[in-house]
From TrEMBL:
Keywords: Membrane, Transmembrane, Transmembrane helix. This is Putative integral membrane protein. It comes from the Bacteria. Residues 2-149 form the Dicarboxylate carrier MatC N-terminal domain. The keyword Membrane applies.
């Protein structure tokens, strides 16, 4: 078998095993596969294989994750979420809107989609049961809001996206913000559709649920100040997100404003290993020509439907694998080959198609975001019903995301 084809088969095998055996980290499997392919098939040394490790990307992921784990463990993010519910008064119809906006803002401020959903989901899902709002709708708006905000330049996923674009040669400072707001708009359209389909009836809210809020302490105010500085450093002064986050993390730890040991323990190391391993394997695939072969197949897509098809392929690939850990590192580096000789705008549009397609399906309970919302519901018929409906909605998002991308990027642009 040709090495390029064999390497692609190995990648599919690794992702399939990782999907059906969640106890096996696909990143570790990828490193083993990369060594077998590289050393015994491609003639690479162990040092050459290790050179495929994306050190800058890993540093960004660790630094930004650590910073926001510190803010989560000292209660700053939780207080922000509870404080943000204050404007909701009198009508349960505004509750899904409020939770969408809270998830969006929290995710965009830096924690990213998973952390924002983990913070919001328990309160949101409990509120949906108490106030007669569809748990399906609440799960959709929380997950979609978090995903709409996660491509902020200061968020974890946004930082990964920015680094992948930089490696492609897209270094214009304004591009990450353009990707952010365009992805956010497309994601928001799906939330609006869900609201129109499952909107709640008018019902008075329980005022005590939103008024019981502790005050911000000195450590919380210091944390908020660090968050504001982080956003300014990355967005205004274009400092690297990795070093900005690490410097501010050190400040918080030295001043004992957050429990550093707990934060270090809960940094998503499994995701770090996943992205590192997949990147090493993709480096081997690129070396043996697998990515070039795959790129040539996708590049044959007609121009009039190119972005829609790209989003659909990314969405289907994301159903059984990590959106930011697998799909983005796999597809985004292919963009220069998919759009040869394209302008920065053309490359950016392709990145947006991949981003949207990969993340729209995250509402599924098979993905982390959907699973977090489902886990916040008590065991029983309502949870089982929500699981079925959420699974169907998540799978539909692969096609709806492709349709929205087709309309926005293929028809309108």
């Amino acid at each position: 078998m040709d090495m390029a084809v064999l390497a692609l088969v190995m990648l599919v095998l690794v992702l399939t095993v990782g999907a059906f055996r969640p106890d096996l980290n696909a990143g570790v499997l990828s490193i083993a596969a990369a060594f077998l392919l590289g050393a015994f098939g491609a003639g690479l040394t162990a040092t050459q294989i290790a050179d495929f490790l994306p050190s800058s990307l890993i540093l960004t992921l660790v630094g930004v994750s650590l910073f926001f784990e510190l803010l989560r463990h000292n209660g700053t993010l939780d207080l922000l979420a509870r404080w943000a519910l204050k404007p909701v008064r009198g009508d349960a119809r505004w509750l899904p809107v409020a939770f969408f906006l809270i998830a969006f803002v929290l995710s965009a401020l830096g924690p990213g989609n998973i952390a924002a959903t983990a913070l919001i989901a328990p309160v949101a899902m409990a509120s949906s049961l108490q106030l007669g709002v569809s748990p399906l709708l609440m799960a959709i708006v929380v997950c979609t809001g978090a995903n709409a905000g996660t491509f902020s330049p200061v968020a974890v996923t946004g930082s990964i996206n920015t680094e992948l674009m930089r490696q492609m040669g897209l270094s214009e400072p304004a591009l990450p913000l353009q990707v952010f707001w365009r992805v956010a708009v497309i994601q928001t359209l799906s939330a609006v559709l869900a609201y129109l389909l499952f909107h709640p009836k008018a019902q008075n809210l329980n005022p005590t649920a939103s008024e019981d809020r502790p005050d911000f302490s000195k450590q919380h105010l210091l944390s908020l100040g660090c968050m504001a500085v982080f956003i300014a450093l990355v967005v205004v002064f274009h400092w690297p997100a990795s070093y900005s986050a690490i410097l501010l993390s050190v400040l918080l730890m030295v001043l004992r404003a957050a429990p550093s040991e707990k934060a270090l323990e809960t940094v998503p190391w499994a995701v770090v290993v996943l992205i590192a391993g997949i990147s090493v394997l993709l480096g081997v695939l690129e070396h043996v020509g697998s990515l070039e072969m795959l790129t040539s197949r996708l590049s044959e897509t007609p121009d009039g439907v190119f972005h829609g098809v790209l989003a659909l392929v990314a969405g289907l690939a994301s159903v059984g694998s990590s959106s930011s850990g697998v799909v983005m590192p796999l597809f985004i580096p292919m963009v220069p080959g998919l759009v040869p000789g394209g302008s920065e705008r053309a490359w950016m549009d392709a990145v947006i198609a991949i981003d949207v397609g990969a993340h729209m399906v995250d509402v599924s309970p098979l993905s982390t975001l959907g699973a977090l919302c489902l886990a916040a519901l008590p065991e029983g018929p309502e949870r089982q019903r929500t699981f079925r409906h959420l699974l169907l909605w998540g799978l539909m998002m692969a096609f709806l995301g492709a349709l929205l991308v087709f309309v926005v990027l293929d028809l309108v642009s």
